Amino acid sequence: MKKVLCSLLSFLLIFLMMTPAEVRAELEISAPSVLLLEESTGQVLYEKNADEQRSPASITKIMTLILIFDELEKGTISLTDEVVTSAHAKSMGGSQVFLEEGEKQTVETLIKCIVVASGNDASVAMAEYIAGSESDFVARMNARAAELGMTATKFEDCCGLTDSAGHYTTARDVALMSRELVTHYPQILNYSSIWMEDITHVTAQGTKPFTLSNTNKLIRSYEGCVGLKTGSTSTAKYCVSAVAQRNGITLIAVVMGAPDHKVRFTDASVLLNYGFGSCTLYEDENQEEFNPVPVENSITKEVKVAYAEKFRYLETEGRDLSQIQKTVELPEKVTAPVKKGETAGRAVYTLDGQEIGSVAILYQKDVEAAEYVDYVKLLWKQYLRFGNKDSQDEVPAEG
Prior knowledge:
The chain is an alpha+beta fold. Helix content is 35%, strand content 26%. It comes from Wansuia hejianensis.
């Protein structure tokens, strides 16, 4: 017993002395392809065969959800719109919520059906509602993937039901689209974190309740898990893109090709545990307002400047983030013309004498260069202002 205890203590000591890179090498991951990403910075914390093209199964629906929320943001559809189920949508096999042809459900209900219960029928119904046909919607999916830099992805349907060799993506690309959805449409987490919820089918046959049950079991078994999407087919095996939040940090763990559903959740948990245990997020909460920068060669005397974004830095080496220092680099003056959105300077952040990142400081308005006629107009305005004042002063007071 004493020898066992000594061995355990020795192992613990060795583990604590390991560098993060050595710890990463020790992660026990069974799935052939995984990636762990921190959401706010986009920093990859761990990867294994992350660029290997694989069938994604229902995690395809992450892109479907992005396009749905794109349309909601543009105002072309609303959550209360009623969507009519087509015969094609009803015919979908695999995971479904058993929509009937002609059945009406709101956009919000169908979002829940897609992200909670992985409804293929709901996905196709929404695709047809937005684009007119599933094929046109899939074309939009591929265009959106290209915009996000998902260079190793091609979609052939909107739900991932196909096992076609022409429908593929990678763990890296899944992380990219997961981050896009969570970052730009964080309200998705209100839906993806639902464990169980009832919807109501209203058809010619009558009214009946149907219970949506979340396919992502990490929602209940992993502290802080709030989404996002699972998938499985005979070709894809078992996949998950899991989102979890702790202590202000949001992590995205993508697992593809796991041999069974238990392994995909175990691997995702291992990745998330590593991430939360090894990283600390620094956010500059004191991004001050700057004095306007004086402008030369213009009637406008100064121009406002401001940070382009909040500075975030993810520390994985355990250093003391209270020692981060910031230096602001701004010109004493600028010569017109100046364009809104152009870089005026930057704030540079250093730790232990090394630069760890920077944030651009941008001009907040256009400032045109002055021409001869501008100066003439200015002199004329000044003459009218001060000349009239002098004339009024010379008029004797009545009395």
